[in-house]
Amino acid sequence: MGTETDEQAPTADDLRPGDLVEVEVGAVAHGGHCVARYQGRVVFVRLALPGESVRVRITEVRKGSFCRGDVVSVLRADPERIEAPCVHFRPGGCGGCDFQHATGTRQRQLKADVVAEQLHRLAGLDVAVVVEELPGGGFGWRTRVRWALDPQGRIGPRAVRSHRVEGVNPSEPCLIAAPGLNELAATADVPAGVRRPSSSGTPVRRQQRQLRGRAARPELPEVVLTAAGDGSLLAIWPDQPGHQEVPTVTEQAVGQSFSVAGDGFWQVHPAAADTLAFAVDEALAGVELDGGSSWDLYGGVGLFAEVLAEVVGPSGTVVTVEGDRTASGLAVGNLAHRQQVSVVLGSVEKVIDDLPETVDAIVLDPPRAGAGPELCRQMAARAPSVIVYVACDPAALGRDTAALMGAGYRLDSLRSFDCFPQTHHIECVARFLPA
Ligand SMILES: C[S@@+](CC[C@H](N)C(=O)[O-])C[C@H]1O[C@@H](n2cnc3c(N)ncnc32)[C@H](O)[C@@H]1O
């Protein structure tokens, strides 16, 4: 229950954006905020830590429901609260980081609590979760960013729950961005074809649509900045008309080179691809797979197909399925030295019925939405000896764990990795075996 600070303290029903309230902070929740209650009403609080007593500025009020707010002062601090080093990390500031106000150890504990809570709530499991640190420290790790261009010509991440651009530059850099990306943001040329936003924040073409009532919210042109493992620095504007010829970059993992589109999917932390590949390899161990058959679903440019090819050996088979045409084409080249691998272009949901009937091992690495109950049922129906699930969203992992349990599998092991320090994001590698 929140405490009122003075006679003007609003009642919970009358809360409005801008109000200041004092609350006791409860548990961390999925999404980078903690849960508090003000006179019984739920307030999702950013920049807080569980157990703290804080003053919060209300930023959003959902009628008859919850509110959101940012901590503006701390009345009783968690012992592991620290001064955030980045100028962009502040109430109403950049939406890219969530936990800069906590030590790395505390951040990983928060993420472990979220994973455990999601598995408990969505799958009914009590799992002791440990989030493992990646090498390289907590800053300068993000090798790919998707930032926006504002009417003043600034490039940067968006402010939290807003379209406002938090402009970054070498003197006020984004501290999680890999070396070179802040400089690139400050100096990147905006190609002639990219429609600059008007001062209302809306690109001209979209503004016209908006006038005709077809688009509701302002949008800004975006640029993908990449600091690749091969040393190249790229700025790619997906909104550019005729945006066809995207250069490829070369990344290294598991002792192999992978060609990746400059704006395509590759793990953004330099140590993440190897870390996850080794965890997948470990999760496949102990099951007899030499000469066996396997699927790599949501395969990207072939990272886990490479792991599977090694595990099943030359007499085994790997089918890797990827929906993006460019990534799938690159996977063909990346995996050309593995005769046992075939690459299928298509959406997993559409092609799964056409995949070889027998499968001994499935690795899947879906986007944030997860696999979904139907795909979980279809995978389980093929009765593989092991399913290894690489999850970038703990809620999707919780839902899909419940679906796999309902289809006859059990969660046998789980490893979690802090692939995104300072943010609430996390990667998990879960191994499922027949129950
Ligand atoms: C999280 S990434 C994983 C890529 C790869 N496993 C890796 O680690 O590099 C998810 C991939 O799934 C692809 N994808 C998304 N939805 C898909 C779908 N419905 N069917 C097939 N591929 C899909 C995306 O293009 C992306 O390459």
CATH class of the largest domain: Alpha Beta
Beta-strand fraction estimate: 25-35%
Named CATH topology of the largest domain: Rossmann fold
Find the count of extended strands (DSSP E, 2+ residues): 19
Q: Give helix % range.
A: 10-25%
Average predicted confidence as pLDDT:
93
Number of helices: 9
Rg is: 23 Å
Q: What is the H/E string?
A: EEEEEHEEEHHEEEEHEHEHEHEHEHEE
Assign the CATH superfamily of the largest domain.
Vaccinia Virus protein VP39
Low-confidence runs (pLDDT<50, min 5 residues)?
A: 1-5, 204-217
Distance between the termini: 43 Å
List all distinct small molecules, including ions and cofactors, that are bound in this structure: S-adenosylmethionine
Structural class: alpha/beta
User: In total, how many domains does the architecture comprise?
Assistant: 3
Return the CATH architecture of the largest domain: 3-Layer(aba) Sandwich
Strand order of the largest sheet: 6-18-19-17-16-13-14-15
For the largest beta-sheet, the strand count, sense and barrel status come to: 8 strands, mixed
State the shape: globular
SSE topology sketch:
Blueprint: E1 20-29, E2 33-38, E3 41-46, E4 53-61, E5 67-76, H1 104-123, E6 131-133, E7 144-149, E8 155-156, H2 181-187, H3 204-211, E9 222-227, E10 233-236, E11 248-253, E12 256-261, H4 272-284, E13 293-297, H5 303-312, E14 317-322, H6 325-334, E15 341-345, H7 348-351, E16 361-364, H8 373-381, E17 386-391, H9 394-406, E18 409-418, E19 427-434
The structure holds S-adenosylmethionine.
S-adenosylmethionine (SAM) binds at residues 265-266, 298-300, 303-304, 321-324, 327, 347-349, 365, 367, 392.
